[in-house]
């Protein structure tokens, strides 16, 4: 392994610090959970996860949203799956959320506070959602 310069070590430290900050839940009230079981990874969940993280940063939401990964959600036929938990909105599981859909997810659900109807797999019934 090649030796790293002091500047390279500092850059690596800053990169890892940013990765850890993204996982910090302190003060964040919105969660995005990406299904990263083997079925999800095979369907492109890692690329989806990365694209969502980039979109959150682009829209200045990384300090309000925690993005996590979980194992298989049991919906292998519509992977990659993404669950979004946000205040004043129903908890929703979206399916077929490829990396191309990440920007739409962030803009529609988190910025505009509307749902991506074409990708919804599961949400609470209307009669139990608090108004």
Can you offer a commentary on this structure?
The chain is an alpha+beta fold and 131 residues long. The chain has a single domain (27-128), classed as Glutaredoxin (3-Layer(aba) Sandwich). Helices cover 37% and strands 17% of the residues. It contains 4 helices and 5 strands. It has helices at residues 6-23, 38-43, 45-58, 102-111; strands spanning 30-35, 65-70, 82-85, 92-94, 120-122. The chain has a 5-stranded mixed beta sheet with strand order 2-1-3-4-5, covered by helices on one side. Helix 3 crosses helix 4. The radius of gyration is 16 Å and the shape is globular. The model has no long low-confidence stretch (mean pLDDT 86).
Task: Offer a concise description of the structure.
The chain is 37% helix and 17% strand.
């Amino acid at each position: 392994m090649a030796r790293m310069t002091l500047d390279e070590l500092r850059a690596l430290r800053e990169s890892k610090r940013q990765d850890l900050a993204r996982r910090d839940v302190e003060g964040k009230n919105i969660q995005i959970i990406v299904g990263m079981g083997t079925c999800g990874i095979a369907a492109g969940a890692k690329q989806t996860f990365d694209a969502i993280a980039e979109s959150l940063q682009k829209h200045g939401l990384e300090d309000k949203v925690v993005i996590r990964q979980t194992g298989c959600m049991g919906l292998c036929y519509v992977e990659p799956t993404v669950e979004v938990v946000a205040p004043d909105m129903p908890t929703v599981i979206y399916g077929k959320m490829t990396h191309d859909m990440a920007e739409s997810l962030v803009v529609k659900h988190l910025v505009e506070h509307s749902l991506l109807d074409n990708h919804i797999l599961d949400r609470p019934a209307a009669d139990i959602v608090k108004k």
